[in-house]
Amino acid sequence: MPTTLTAFADVTTSDSALRRFLHGLPGVDTVGLEARAASLGTRSIKTTAKAYAIDLAISMIDLTTLEGADTPGKVRALSAKAVHPDPIDRTTPMTAAVCVYPDMVATAKAALNGADVKVASVATAFPAGRAALPVKLADTRDAVAAGADEIDMVIDRGAFLAGRYLETYELIKAVKEACVRADGTSARLKVIFETGELSTYDNIRRASWIGMLAGADFIKTSTGKVGVNATPANTLLMLEAVRDFKAQTGIQIGVKPAGGIRTTKDALKFLVLVNETVGEDWLTSEWFRFGASSLLNDLLMQRQKLSTGRYSGPDYVTVD
Fold it and tell me: SS3 of 99, please?
């Protein structure tokens, strides 16, 4: 099996070559995609398997606060919750990461104090991405220099929708290079497409391939700041893209649905999508994440119900 992008070397040599490749991808069968996503969403997970799935979902959460009113105190509290989501039950897994704005990275890093929780930072003029390239790269470098383990960037949806595919590719590639630290190591890069603004499933497939070709470590549905965010159908489509990419290159890419995933029932549906589409290799926080804030509370309540037989209700968990 190939393990490099050599087979696609000619695809990104020009805008016309990239356009030919992207428009040569198989068209998305909208009815079939949505039907399969809906069908997989009806799968039932019971008892022991449900307990395992809840813990797995907790371990995959990027616990997120991205508000203008964020304070150092709020970020410290969120970091403490990431390390001990349920202070009464220390068997509860840590979350995968805490996701904050670049100016809060150092605060989160200090609060985590070496715990096995990543610090993710949005960058590139999140959420709209409306800034000049030097600003986007400075935004990224500042977050990495402050200690970010992961960068969640946004693409320029205007450029993509205008058909400037190579420009979109080169932006991602430039940000990937800006993720490299002084010691030569690199923060992992998650590329956000804002699927709710891409209009069609074909565009989501094309954006997925641009991101993967440009060096994304993860492809991510959304910012959580628009009306339509992660859905089972758009996540299924992106899972199919990373599956096909690995089959052709040997390179594994992660997937992160974000925005609108609030309940345990929702999270378990997404885990079924992962298992049935790409398999166990992706059923780890290394390759699948949930971008969420309120989801963790519901998972904790359902977890306690399974262990005690009682449903504690929302007062049992802290309000983020």
Answer: strand
pLDDT in tens, 71-130: 999 999 999 999 999 999 999 999 999 999 999 999 999 999 999 999 999 999 999 999
The answer to whether 121 and 100 are in contact (CB under 8 A) is yes
Alpha-helix runs per DSSP H in the chain: 15-23, 30-40, 47-59, 72-83, 105-112, 133-145, 157-161, 165-178, 201-214, 232-249, 264-277, 295-308
199-214 pLDDT per residue, tens = 999 999 999 999 999 9
Global pTM?
0.94
DSSP structural state of residue 255: E
- Tally of helices (H runs) and strands (E runs) in the chain: 12, 8
Sign for the CA dihedral angle at 231, 233, 234, 235 comes to positive
Q: Is 76 exposed, middle or buried (0-12, 13-18, 19+ CB in 10 A)?
A: middle
Instruction: Find the angle CA(125)-CA(262)-CA(256) to the nearest 5 degrees.
Output: 50
Cβ 239 vs Cβ 277: under 8 Å: yes
Mind telling me the catalytic residues?
152, 220, 256
